[in-house]
Write a structure and sequence with these properties.
- This is Cysteine desulfurase.
- It catalyses: (sulfur carrier)-H + L-cysteine = (sulfur carrier)-SH + L-alanine.
- It comes from Flavobacterium sedimenticola.
- Residues 24-391 form the Aminotransferase class V domain.
- Helix 8 links the parallel strand 8 and strand 9 (217-221).
- The protein has helices at residues 4-9, 36-49, 59-79, 93-104, 126-135, 152-158, 181-190, 210-213, 238-243, 278-294, 296-315, 342-351, 364-370, 386-403; strands spanning 17-18, 21-22, 24-25, 87-90, 113-117, 138-142, 163-169, 194-198, 217-221, 232-236, 254-257, 262-264, 320-323, 332-337, 354-355, 357-359, 375-379.
- The protein folds into 2 domains: 4-30 and 295-403, Aspartate Aminotransferase, domain 1; 39-293, 3-Layer(aba) Sandwich (Aspartate Aminotransferase, domain 2).
- It is 40% helix and 17% strand.
- It has a 7-stranded mixed sheet, with helices on both faces. Strands 13-14-17-16 form a 4-stranded antiparallel sheet, with helices on one face.
- By secondary structure, the protein is α/β, with parallel strands linked by helices.
- It binds ligand C6P.
- Ligand C6P is lined by residues 29-30, 92-94, 121, 123-124, 169, 173, 198, 200-201, 221, 357, 361-362.
């Protein structure tokens, strides 16, 4: 069982007032709040060991390098990667997806197929469209049903020897659907396709096991898992990372450089050009340790309670419709109230201290599917409470009265 009050005390921002009201932070899908250990670790890095890494023989450079590489091992163990060099530091999910999509340009030819899902964030659509434009490959979309679940029978039909890569999120940011990625990966492998899993929304809620999933790539962002912004992870199977060309050229990703030819550094450095986000990399390890101390089983169980409680309470509001009713769902609720624009509700409840996201959530095709401009999205984390949900529900009722 989680001691929520003790956990909340770890997050200084949660005791703040916003617009004169206690903050109710339900925009965790956009970014998570940071515990004091993470905030302290950022300051400690700059106060005590700030130096460039993998370059100097001096003591600070060595300390910073050791801390950065220790964090890589923390993340390796967290996601159960076979080797630490399969864990690449990136600036975030978007960077990771672009690195892989860019690499596939060297492997695809006209007529090859790339499968994305109808549930994707723009970050997992646009880089693949750009890849298809460059190579003449064809983008195909795995459709979804009215509950926001991917239609597996349609996926089966789309898979063929022409499919070179399948790219799908583990959890949808807009609807909260948890996709059956393990089964989808196995099916893709039967036709020889690689699979990238966008774990941006999954990693705050669960501990991915990349070897058990057998995914070829798994990407996520540090800022959604209590870490800083500007840091993320691209996991890739060694065979794939060796096969793909580097994404960017520059310092630290080379073995030798002459004006005639450059040879590349070994993994993981081949994909880590330039001075990285050193503090971010180190502190991502701190964030992952913090979450593991809270425990992902505890997190999942508690967040599911919040989801069920909020769903039931929200549905008591007349005219409220929830988008995304998948059987397997995480603690995200997207909804609208008859005839009221989501921005109007979002703006009014912000005045009451409540932070939710409104709009298309960088997932316009999902909004198009439902023929709506956007939704109000409340996304809960393990530090939220049922009392906060009550505050939001009352605020929504008030906003509804004002607007109708
Ligand atoms: N979704 C949201 O409010 P970056 O921006 O690179 O850290 O993550 C991009 C991204 C990719 N895939 C999924 C499934 C995501 O949810 C996100 C980020 C945030 O839903 C901000 S748009």
């Amino acid at each position: 069982m989680l001691d929520i009050q003790k956990i909340r005390a770890d997050f200084p921002i949660l005791s703040q007032k916003v617009n004169g009201k206690p903050l109710v932070y339900f925009d965790n899908g956009a970014t998570s709040q940071k515990p004091q250990v993470v905030i302290d670790a950022i300051a400690r890095y700059y106060q005590e060991i700030n130096a460039n890494i993998h370059r100097g023989v001096h003591t600070l450079s060595q300390l910073a390098t050791d801390a950065y590489e220790a964090s890589r091992h923390t993340i390796q163990h967290h996601i159960n990667a076979k080797n630490a060099y399969e864990v690449i530091f990136t600036s975030g999910t978007t960077h990771g997806i672009n690195a892989v999509a860019n690499g596939f340009a060297a492997l695809l030819k006209a007529g090859d197929e790339v499968l994305v899902s109808a549930l994707e964030h723009h970050s997992n659509i646009v880089p693949w469209q750009m890849l298809c434009e460059r190579t003449g490959a064809v983008l195909k979309v795995i459709p979804m049903n009215d509950k926001g679940e991917l239609i597996q029978a349609e996926y089966d039909k789309l898979l063929s020897p022409k499919t070179k890569i399948v790219t799908v999120n583990h959890i949808s940011n807009a609807l909260g659907t948890i996709n059956p990625v393990k089964e989808m990966i196995a099916k893709a492998h039967q036709v020889g396709a690689a699979v990238l899993i966008d774990g941006a929304q999954a990693t705050p809620h669960l501990k991915p096991d990349v070897q058990d999933l057998d995914c070829d790539f798994y990407v996520f962002s540090g800022h959604k898992i209590c870490g800083p912004t500007g840091i993320g992870i691209l996991y890739g199977k060694e065979t794939w990372l060796r096969k793909l060309p580097p994404y960017q050229g520059g310092g630290e990703m080379i073995a030798t450089v002459t004006f005639e030819k450059t040879t590349y550094a070994d993994l993981p450095h081949k994909f880590e050009a330039g001075t990285p986000n050193i503090a971010g990399g180190i502190v991502l390890g701190t964030a992952v340790d913090y979450l593991n101390e809270v425990g992902f089983d505890n997190i999942a169980k508690y967040e599911h309670e919040l989801l069920e409680y909020a769903t039931q309470k929200l549905l008591e509001i007349e005219g409220l419709q929830i988008f995304g009713t998948a059987e397997a769902k995480t603690s995200v609720i997207s909804f609208n109230i008859n005839g009221i624009h989501p921005y109007d509700i979002g703006t009014i409840i912000d005045k009451l201290g409540i932070a939710v996201r409104t709009g298309h959530h960088c997932a316009q095709p999902i909004m198009d599917y439902f023929n709506i401009p956007g939704t109000i999205r409340a996304s809960f984390a393990f530090y939220n409470t049922k009392e906060e949900i009550d505050v939001m529900v009352e605020a929504i009722k008030k906003a509804k009265m004002m607007l109708s």
